[in-house]
């Protein structure tokens, strides 16, 4: 059985004041939890384990000591009730970890984990969002029980009204906070009884997304575009390859290699979820691929990543973002040149495929083309573009 008591440690600080600590003893081994308070040795009552009344702040310090001692005893009893043997250092960890791992400490750990996994883009996104939350909270340390429904609602209002973020972007911030909190509960850094999200607490509400893709006529305008600069035509070729292969993501398009094309099929592994993809090469894609094959200097179909080390995830991600921005600028000019009023970007290739497929392809087949893990995801995504039934129902009512 472990014992616990308050003591005055023997090593003074630069001002010759001694630290007050909570001592844990088990199996003749000791460990200390420091309270952050320092006093003169003459002002310590060793028998009572408290500050003498002669100290000007005796009442406040003693209340702090008793509070910490009570909390430590509660956590000690909980730690000792575990079936497995725990050393004195393990018991100390159980006692102090909820104080040590505040919310922003958990954020630091998650950022490090993302970096270790090579998810540099995700790390940067999370860091940016949590920096704004920290600035709003006006504190470098925020205990989990301080993240209340009221705080979350005020932060949401701050993002929308003062920063001017859109609803969906605001929701992404709240999801990031919830994710960190869930990780902390899983790691036993936070207790579930303080959890502010979900039923009866703060609810994250999603608005229906507005995904707009090009129609057949607009894609034909792109296919037959004339008078483009070489850079604009190159950006358009990348867009068309993405569209022809069921809207594969720009990061995957830029990383395509000639060795990925075997027996008239494209075989590659998706960067987002590492799933294997195998697609027939559409006839419309062949002239574009033949053109780049005639220019090929290495295994890359497109040369933007030619000198990038594929093992350096951070540099690779940065380069892909830079190329995507450049392509999007060219695509915007192409849309203006062709009189296309819709926003044209690399990601719109995926929406355009969804828009044109509409209700023409069975949902299970679309799931395979999109490589969604669940058909529910495909249904939700495709619902943005499947409008024929709704239009027919409207006509049946009003056309009398």
TrEMBL record:
Keyword terms, alphabetized: DNA integration, DNA recombination, DNA-binding
Keyword DNA-binding tagged: yes
GO molecular function, one term: DNA binding
InterPro entries: Arm-DNA-bind_5, CB, DNA_brk_join_enz, Integrase-like_cat_sf, Integrase_catalytic, Integrase_recombinase_N, SAM-like_dom, Tyrosine_recombinase_XerCD
The keyword Hydrolase belongs to this UniProt entry's keyword annotation: no
Domain called Core-binding (CB): residue spans: 109-185
GO biological process: DNA integration; DNA recombination
Superkingdom assignment: Bacteria
Domain spans labelled Tyr recombinase: 202-395
Annotated family: Belongs to the 'phage' integrase family.
Protein name: Site-specific recombinase XerD
């Amino acid at each position: 059985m472990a014992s616990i008591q308050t003591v005055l440690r023997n090593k003074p600080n630069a001002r010759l004041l001694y630290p007050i600590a909570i001592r844990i003893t088990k199996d003749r081994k000791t460990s200390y939890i420091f309270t952050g308070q320092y006093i003169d040795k003459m002002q310590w009552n060793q028998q009572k384990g408290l500050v003498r009344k002669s100290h000007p702040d005796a009442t406040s310090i003693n209340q702090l000591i008793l509070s910490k001692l009570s909390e430590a005893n509660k956590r000690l009893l909980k730690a000792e009730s575990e079936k497995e043997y725990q050393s004195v250092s393990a018991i100390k960890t159980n006692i102090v970890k909820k104080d040590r791992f505040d919310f922003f400490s958990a954020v630091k750990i998650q950022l490090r984990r993302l970096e270790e996994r090579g998810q540099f883009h995700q790390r940067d996104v999370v860091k940016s969002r949590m920096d704004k939350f920290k600035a709003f909270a006006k504190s470098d340390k925020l205990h989990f029980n301080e993240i209340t429904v009221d705080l979350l609602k005020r932060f949401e209002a701050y993002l929308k009204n003062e920063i001017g973020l859109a609803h969906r972007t605001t929701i992404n911030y709240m999801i990031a906070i919830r994710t960190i909190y869930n990780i902390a509960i899983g790691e036993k850094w936070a207790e579930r009884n303080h959890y502010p999200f979900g039923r009866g607490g703060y609810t994250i509400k999603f608005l229906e997304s507005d995904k707009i893709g090009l129609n057949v006529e607009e894609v034909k305008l792109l296919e037959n575009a004339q008078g483009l600069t070489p850079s604009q035509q190159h950006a358009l070729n990348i867009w068309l390859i993405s569209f022809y292969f069921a809207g594969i993501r720009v990061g995957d398009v830029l990383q395509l290699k000639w060795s990925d094309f075997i027996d008239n099929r494209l075989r590659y592994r998706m960067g987002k979820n590492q799933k294997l993809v195998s697609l027939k090469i559409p006839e419309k894609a062949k002239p574009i691929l033949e053109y780049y094959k005639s220019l090929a200097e290495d295994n890359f179909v497109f040369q933007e990543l030619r000198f990038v080390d594929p093992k350096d995830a951070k540099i690779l991600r940065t380069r892909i973002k830079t190329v995507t921005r450049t392509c999007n600028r060219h695509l915007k000019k192409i849309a203006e040149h062709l009189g296309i009023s819709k926003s044209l970007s690399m990601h719109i290739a995926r929406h355009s495929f969804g828009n044109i497929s509409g209700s023409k392809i069975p949902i299970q087949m679309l799931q395979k083309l999109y490589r969604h893990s669940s058909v529910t995801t495909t249904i939700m995504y495709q619902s943005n573009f499947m409008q024929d039934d709704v239009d027919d129902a409207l006509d049946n009512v009003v056309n009398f």
